[in-house]
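Note to self: keep these together.
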Amino acid sequence: MKFYTKQVQNAVYCSRWNDIGHKDKIVGNIHTTNSINNIVLSKYLVDADVFNDKYCTSCKHLYICGGGCASKRLTEIDKPKKRSYHIFKNHLPELLDLHYENI
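Structure:
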């Protein structure tokens, strides 16, 4: 799972840079351990899991792209074709050729 946190002004976020500053996206605070927002955290740990996404699990590129951006998957769960995917998805043959040329 592609998951990381960012800390800005003591707030910890789990997702993309676009979420910074949105209070509803804060997972916790770096100075207090009892301030974890389990609802937001579980949303990114469970709901954003690529293996819970039917579109991703049926895609032959799943193990190359890893499902793309978890935050995008959450916000566009009902619009899988609108998501931005890893560069491998649409350019795999060209990228493999480039890789083999550089070996």
